[in-house]
Amino acid sequence: MFAETYSLPDDKPFVSIAVPDAWDTDEIDDGIESTSKDGQVYFYVEVTDADNVKAAMDEGVKYLQSKGVTLDADSAKDQEGKLNGMEVVGVKWDGKDEDGAAKISLTVIVLSEDKGLLLVYWGSPDGAKANQDDLNKIVNSIKKL
User: Fold this and answer.
1) Chain centre distance of CA 3
2) Is residue 46 a contact partner of residue 34, using CB atoms and an 8 Å limit?
3) Which domains does the chain have, with CATH numbers?
4) 14-42: pLDDT as tens digits
5) Which of 7, 38, 47, 136 would give a disulfide with 30, using CB separation of 3.0 to 4.6 Å?
6) Cis peptide leading into 9, omega within 30 of 0?
7) Mean pLDDT calculated for residue range 99-111
8) In whole angstroms, what is the distance from residue 8 CA to residue 27 CA?
9) pLDDT of residue 7
């Protein structure tokens, strides 16, 4: 499987991410939107301000709502850790989209004191399982430039 690497943001890149060629990926302002080949998983990445992680998370929730995704607040699981040496904070939920049940994740990767990468993901439970290898490769491909 080949992958296309995107450098973000376009005007002055400081982070890269690779997405499988088989995924349908569109470049947007300061990021990308991508859908798995089977149409079961959606992935959105955008450069954001890291000095206000809460605002970035709120932005991610608004994006999900704009796409018709609803969150089950009782299922929320906070996450913290490291990815390729970078601090990561996030939340995972169960919820729904227009196709039914969904697994949802919203993560901020801190790239520097003032820059971060907002990752928003959702997909059907079966789609999440079927595309887990690709999702892991996408996330693990994220690198500071």
Assistant:
1) 17
2) no
3) 3-144 (3.40.1000.10)
4) 999 999 999 999 999 899 999 999 999 99
5) 47
6) yes
7) 95
8) 10
9) 94
Q: How remote is the C-alpha of 130 from its chain's centroid?
A: 17
Judge contact between 123 and 6, C-beta under 8 A: no
Q: Please, are residues 117 and 109 in contact by the beta-carbon 8 Å criterion?
A: yes
Residue 82, Cβ neighbours under 10 Å: how many? Answer: 10
Write the CB contacts of 141 (distance below 8 Å, at least 6 apart in sequence): 3, 5, 16, 17, 18
Q: Is 122 strand, coil or helix?
A: strand
Give the list of residues 6+ apart from residue 37 with CB closer than 8 angstroms, or none: 20, 22, 23, 24
**Token pair 């009782």 in the structure block, residue:** 74
Question: Model pTM?
Answer: 0.90
The arithmetic mean of pLDDT across residues 34-56, rounded, is: 91
Tally of CB atoms within 10 A around 126: 12
